[in-house]
Structure formats: C-alpha cells, structure tokens
Amino acid sequence: MVASEVVEALQTLPCGRRLLAVAQDHPGMWLVGGAVRDLLLGRTPRELDIAVEGDVQDVARALGGEVRLHERFGTATVVDGACRFDLARTRIERYPAPGALPEVTWAGVEDDLRRRDVTVNAIAVSLPDGRMIHVDRALEDLDARMLDVLHAASLQDDPTRVWRIARYAARLGFTVAPEVRLQAANLGRGEVSGERIGNELRLALAEPDPCSVFEQLEALCPWVLPEGFAARPAPLAAALEVLPADGRRDLTVLAACTGPMDLDAARRWLEELGFAASDRDVVLAASRWVTGAPLRAATSASEIARAAAGAPIEAVALAGGEQARRWIEELRDVRLDITGADLVAAGVAPGPQLGERLQRVLDAKLDGRVMGREDELALALGEADA
Fold first, then answer.
1. Fold observed for domain 145-223
2. Cα dihedral 279, 283, 284, 289 sign
3. Which pLDDT tens digit goes with each residue over 95-127?
4. Which of 37, 67, 157, 304 is the most buried (most CB within 10 A)?
5. Residue 98 CB partners (closer than 8 Å, separation 6+)
C-alpha cells in the first residue's frame, strides 16, 4: 500500500472522513504512528494519531466531540462516539535522565518522527494530500515485520518502551530485532515512576491476549515483572470462558497472574503502580481463589451458593469447574419472593433469626425444594418441612 492508498483507506472509515474534512482547512496535519502502520498493513487502526504543525487546540475544536486539552504538553484527545483522535504538536524530546519525563521543544514533523518508539511507527502521511515521509528503515522493517528502535539509547531514555514493544510483538506477531533484545537485557528502570508502569500494565491488560504481552516481556526484560508473577497462568483460559459480561476481564487476568505471588508483595506492587483500592481488593481476593477449594468441594446448588456468596465474580470464575459455571450462569441471580418484612408481618420478631430463616428458605429454593411465594413463607414460618 502506498501513501495515496492510505488516504483512500482512511476515507472508508467514518472517523477518517471527518479527519480528512477538517484537514482541508487546517494545513500541517499528519497521520502518524500506529494508525499509518496499521493502514499500511491492511488493518483497521484502534485510534487515529495526528501530529499537528500548528495549533492543536484549533484542530481539536474543529473535529468536534468532547475535547480534553493539555496545553502545557501541546496535546489533545477528541472523543465523539466511536471516534477517538489523539493530537500532539510536532516536537523534539530530550530526556534529562534515564526514565525521566522528556523536555519538549516544538519542531517540524521530520524531527517529530525521530522521537518515536520503533521504526514502523515513524511514518507520517500528510492530510489530505497523502504525501508520505518516514525515518530510515521504516518501510523495510514493516515489510520484514520487524520491531527495531531508532537509536542505541532508545530504551535507556524511556524504559517503558519495552512494554510497548512487547505489546506490538504480541498484537502484530512481529519479531523483535536482536539489537533491541540486547538493549532490553541491559535495561535498568531509571527514574520511571510506578504510575507510568501502571499505565503500561493497564494497556497490556487491554490487549486481546495480555499473556502474550507478558511472555514477550519475560523474554525481553525479566525484571520488569515481579517475582512470582505468572505470565500465562493455567486457570486463566477456563476462567475467561465463564466470566460474565459484568465481570472485569482485566482484573481477572491480573488476579490469575499474581496468584503465585506473595500476598503482601502483590499488594505493595499494585499500590506502587497506582491501582485504585477497589481494584486492588478485587485482584487480591480473586488471586487467593485460584484454587477455589471451597467452591470445588460443593455438591448441591445451595452449597455452591454459600461458597460463592460475597466473593468477587472474578474470583468465582478463577475457581473454575462446573460449580463456578453453575453459580455464574444459573444460581447467582436466584432471589426469594419473600423478604424479612413479610416475616415480621407474619409475627416473627426482628433480629438475627430473620436472616437465618431467609437463608434456610433460599437454600431450599436453590435445591428445588420450594416453589413460589406460599411455599417460601410456609417454610420460613416453620409450617412446612425443608
């Protein structure tokens, strides 16, 4: 595919047509990075990355939708329905220390391409006319399906690039260049914050196959993942098969991978990476349920429900087995037709016994021993045998 075909492919996308229309009145707009790479590969890009040799704010507002502007960094994100545009003013970046955030100077698009993470992302197509520019080896590496960095200090400047290279390798099936593997093997963390690593981990968890990303990381730079972290844990595939739509796939993957880790070490790691307390709680609870012994030992529906009650749905999925499937697909939404108020109205004194009676009736309903409101009320009031 040549540059003109990139523009033609862009015209087939609703978001692409909007972008091209705006570019008619805003010179200096370039489609860059993964969007160009994916279009050249015949793939639909996840989002459209735009380098702007001019006023980012003006372009963002012209695109419409919800605009999140970061004037200090010369960047903006525009979201409107299914369309997402990531805009950045063209720049040069200098890293004052390994892993530190870069110092930014505005520059032209040719200089901007030289700051990219890998050569296959250092390609730009001008909009709307479709002129292509790229760094040396970019198209050759794309043809060879090779991931290579632009200079010998690339990973040292920004160690988080190893995460991105692992994601590209896993998603695209590309080979990592030997020189990159050598850089990664000698990589230190530098001054990279836990928050930035946490952001990279979240992006990895959002990939179609996060475990492939983790396997790539283990091969490239083993210290990036903590001790005990399992790149592809055995219980995960079965758990994802039964995980319902309201379950968190990302947290299920993370829980399975951290299952073999020491609990305190896993907690500290998640805190360092900036995960919200609610997400940490789910991951840590679910990670201890990887074996799921209480649930696996259950035989009746009521035993399954008692074992699973109160556990995150991600934990139940990781417990695995037929019991987990039954809880998720059949049992977790079973509710009584009576309430504690019904028992009080029938003369039962308020107190713990209300909950005990209701639990007894729920067990019976789960096991098929009561049918309907009258049966439930009779059993709760002791007028029927369970």
1. Hydrophobic Seed Protein (1.10.110)
2. positive
3. 888 777 888 899 999 999 999 999 999 999 999
4. 304
5. 156, 157, 159, 188, 190, 191
Instruction: Give the domain ranges of the chain.
Output: 1-144, 145-223, 226-332, 340-380
CA R_g for the chain: 27
The mean pLDDT of 262-291, rounded to a whole number, is 93
Judged against a pLDDT cut of 60, whether residue 45 lies above it is answered with: yes
Architecture of the structural domain at 1-144 = 2-Layer Sandwich (3.30)
pTM of the full structure: 0.90
**pLDDT given for residue 382 in this prediction:** 87
Band the pLDDT of 360: cuts 50, 70, 90: very high
